[in-house]
Amino acid sequence: MRVLIVGAGIAGPTLAYWLRRTGHDVTLVERAPRLREGGYVVDFWGAGFEVAERIGIVPRLRDEGYRFREAREVGGDGRRIAHFDPQRVIDGAAGRYVTIGRSDLSRAIYDALDGDVETIFGDTVAALADDGGRVGVTFQSGAEREFDLVVGADGLHSRVRALAFGPEREFERHLDIAVAAFDIDGYRPRDELVAVMHTEVGAQALRIALRDGATMFCIMFRHEGELPVDDVTAQQDLLRERLTGFGWEMPQILAQLPQARTFYMDGASQMLMPSWSRGRIALVGDAAACPSLLAGQGSALAMVEAYVLACALAEASGDHRAAFADYENRLAGLVRRKQDGAVGLSGAFVPRNRMMLLLRNAVFGLMGVPFIENLAIGRSLRDPIELPPVPAG
After folding, report:
1. pLDDT band of 230, cuts 50, 70, 90
2. E strand segments, the chain
3. Beta bridge partner(s), residue 83
4. Most CB contacts within 10 A, which of 135, 150, 186, 384?
């Protein structure tokens, strides 16, 4: 079949890889002019790691990823108040665990396509017309083409979802948290292979030294209502406004904000869709069921969803209705549990009050005890899903 995949982040290239392998004619379109850079780092494990193994990119992920020796919570004066050794988490996952930049993961998957998939950068879909036999696509560039299937892998603010299913507001669950991620060259101090966090009521900041001399920051803060869209200046102004009075290194971080190499801000939200498909159009990854950054497994889930969808299409021998139903039936329960778990974790990332902050820091301090660490994290390192066998090429 001729399949259009919209979005070249994590889910899109993963789906393209497996669909091309099973003989489909795939076109990948990405709104950005090139693969996206920057963003935050992700902890990558579970079934998503198994998908990466089947693609053959794990050696590259290990080479480009990070093996942190410490996760450290500090007070306003920079002194350590709690810590634990992430290596024990890696050991608990039998070594099948890597921390890597989200954009590095995306590029590794995309490079696995070996140029064998038609890719269009700097464009996206403007209109979709599903007549039951095919989908007519009008691109923002004005080009018009026809495809047997269209898959939206274009993230939380999916254009495909808006066109085929309705406005985003009908499906979005706000978690009342905003996330900003950016990196700055030459920032000091540096703590190599240490994830340094400082948390106050209403906000948390994370600092990670990257190997190219830059430092990545991920900042979460309580925020209700709309965020500035496609306006980096307004987003940075909001960040300064909301973090006024935040201790630790925040004044110098904000002072260097204009020199950031990359900058990303968005709300922590989830997508609760009644269905992930309609006719010949389907959704995958954050477009279908964004669990939010708080779930900690968005990238891995996106790869699992893409792989299972490709397997379902292969097993259904071209019956897209059966394939889409099978895809959703296999994964909907798992995804919903991840989403609900993330809602419960919001207070651990961004405490609402002083009592929640004290409780959060106390629990984090106990993570240094191996038994407590295994009890808190060990179960989450094993996804309750058995992946379908690799489809025949």
Report:
1. confident
2. 2-6, 25-30, 41-45, 70-74, 80-84, 97-101, 118-121, 125-130, 135-139, 144-147, 149-152, 172-185, 194-200, 203-209, 214-222, 262-271, 277-278, 281-283
3. 72
4. 150
Query: CB neighbours of 373 closer than 8 A, spacing ≥ 6?
Result: 84, 88, 89, 367
Question: β-strands 194-200, 203-209: how paired?
Answer: antiparallel
**Averaged over 30-58, what is the pLDDT?**
92
- Three-state DSSP at 98 gives strand
Please report, for residues 73, 86, 98, 359, the alpha-carbon distance to residue 369 in angstroms, rounded to integers and kept in the order given.
15, 12, 22, 16
Give the DSSP letter string of 321-369. Answer: HHHHHHHHHHHHHHHHHHHHHHHHHHHHHS-SSHHHHHHHHHHHHHTTS
Q: What is the pLDDT of residues 113-154, one digit of tens each?
A: 999 999 999 999 999 999 999 999 999 999 999 999 999 999
The Cα–Cα gap between 45 and 198 comes to 25
Which residue's entry shows tokens 């190997």? 211
> Which tokens in the block code for residue 181?
């991620």
Q: Respond yes or no on whether the N-terminal peptide bond of residue 189 is cis (omega within 30° of 0).
A: yes
CB atoms within 10 A of CB 259: 11
- Nearest CA among 44, 258, 274 for reference residue 165: 274
For 56, counting Cβ atoms within 10 Å of its Cβ (0-12 exposed, 13-18 middle, 19+ buried), the class is exposed
Coarse DSSP helix, strand, coil percentages of the chain, rounded to the nearest 5 percent: 40, 25, 35
> Contact at 8 Å (CB) between 375 and 92?
no
Residue 336: pLDDT over 50: yes
Amino acid at 89: V
Question: Which tokens sit at 272?
Answer: 């609760």
- Tell me whether strands 125-130 and 277-278 are parallel, antiparallel or unpaired: unpaired
Q: Considering only CA atoms, which of 74, 130, 366, 373 is closest in space to residue 249?
A: 74
Three-state secondary structure call for residue 100? strand
Dihedral class, residue 188 (left if φ above 0, else alpha if ψ from -120 to 50, else beta):
beta
Bridge partner list, 199 = 204
Task: Look up residue 3 and give its two tokens.
Answer: 């399949």
Classify 21 in phi/psi space as left (phi over 0), alpha (psi -120 to 50) or beta: alpha
Domains and CATH numbers, the chain: 2-67+90-171+270-347 (3.50.50.60)
Backbone angles phi, psi at 71, to 5 degrees: -110, 120
200 phi-psi bin (left φ>0, alpha ψ -120 to 50, beta other): beta
